[in-house]
Amino acid sequence: MRLLVVEDEAKTREYLRKGLEESGFTVDIANNGLDGLHLALEENYDLVVLDVMLPALEGWDVIKRLRDKKNIPVLFLTARDQIEDRVRGLELGGDDYLIKPFAFVELLARIRTLLRRGPAREVEQISVGDLEIDVIRRRVRRAGVRVDLTPREFSLLQLLANRQGEVLSRTQIASYVWDMNFDSDTNVVEVAIRRLRAKIDDDHAVKLIHTIRGMGYVLEVGERG
Ligand code: CA
């Protein structure tokens, strides 16, 4: 079994390498996100251990770009004060996470579980009412009619659909879809939602994208105040 460890702290990196090699794994090391991404794309690993806070390219960006191409199990390492990050990590396609500092036996147990489980199963199709999203082909149909979306609109719709019924704030949406933080007074998200709505909802009596005043947006079948 071949593992890739992406970690910038020399001490942790060596600790991981030594421990994993002693446990019978072949271990490659990257000490920044960019090198980690390149290795993960070029080589064949059974699993990637990925630190979140990394120079050159953060763990989030590594997994985003990795997930476009490959479906290897990824175990995130995250600091305790970034606990909310775990949600984001799993959302972006991380398979599990471990909070630093962790016990090596715990890490080993998680790695073995993920390796047994194999690659994460991709969700191929998301349905919300009569809206169908083909995630693999990036195609959308509403009531059987094809809807053409820009890549950005598709990402936005996919995010809302993945978390249907959950209210997402503008800031959350901005950080997922645009991969950056906007000031809360920006209307970039609002404009994008309006465009998406025109394509998804305008021709239909049943609306799927709802504005929750002062909170954000939710995708679901049924009325919201
Ligand atoms: Ca780090």
How is this structure best described in words?
- 39% of the residues lie in helices and 22% in strands.
- It has 225 residues and is of the alpha/beta class.
- It folds into 2 domains: 115 residues, 3-Layer(aba) Sandwich (Rossmann fold); 95 residues, Winged helix-like DNA-binding domain superfamily/Winged helix DNA-binding domain (Arc Repressor Mutant, subunit A, Orthogonal Bundle), CATH 1.10.10.10.
- The strands form 3 sheets. Strands 2-1-3-4-5 form a 5-stranded parallel beta sheet, sandwiched between helices. The protein has a 4-stranded antiparallel beta sheet with strand order 6-7-8-9, with helices on one face.
- Helix 2 packs parallel to helix 3.
- The protein is elongated.
- The mean pLDDT is 86.
- Bound molecules: calcium ion (CA).
- Calcium ion (CA) binds next to loops.
Which helices and strands appear, and what pairs or packs with what?
Layout: E1 2-6, H1 10-22, E2 26-30, H2 33-42, E3 47-51, H3 59-69, E4 74-79, H4 85-91, E5 96-100, H5 104-117, E6 125-128, E7 131-134, E8 139-142, E9 145-147, H6 151-162, H7 170-177, H8 188-200, E10 209-212, E11 216-219
Parallel strand pairs: 1-2, 1-3, 3-4, 4-5
Antiparallel strand pairs: 6-7, 7-8, 8-9, 10-11
Helix pairs in contact: 2-3
Calcium ion binds at residues 8-9, 51, 53-54.
